[in-house]
Amino acid sequence: MSHATADKWIATTICEKIDAIGATSFRDDRDINGGDSIPQSIRTEIQISRELVVLLTPDSIERPWVLLEVGAAWGRRKDYRIVPVLCHVTFDAIPDIIEGKKAFHINDFDKYLAELKRRVKK
Questions:
Q1: Which long-range contacts (CB under 8 A, 24 or more apart) does 70-74 make?
Q2: Structural domains of the chain, ranges and CATH numbers in brackets
Q3: What is the superkingdom listed in this entry's lineage (predicted)?
C-alpha cells in the first residue's frame, strides 16, 4: 500500500478490507519494525508482492516517496499490477508513469476488492 502519511486512516481502512478477503497487505507504519531500514523494507516488499495499491489524494499525488514506490513497482515485470485508487483527485491527476492503468475511485473500491478476491482464490 503506497500512501502519504497524512492519509494513514484511509490506508489502514483499505488494508483492513484487503486483508479481510484473504489477501495480504503491507503498510510501512504497521509492518516495518524499529531499527529496520525503511527503504530496504519497502523495496523488498515490492519485489515479493504481485501488486501495489497506490492511494492518490491531494496529499500523496506529488509525494516523492509515493512516486518512488510507484516507479519501483513499474520497473518490475510486465505482469506486475499497479492499482491507483483516487480519493479527492480526478483521473487526470494520475502520474504519467501509470496513467494507462485502470484506476478506481474510492467510492468504487468494492469493485477492486471483488477483482482481487477472484485473483486470491486462484
A1: 70/2, 70/95, 70/97, 70/98, 71/97, 72/42, 72/43, 72/46, 73/2, 73/46, 74/98
A2: 5-121 (3.40.50.10140)
A3: Bacteria
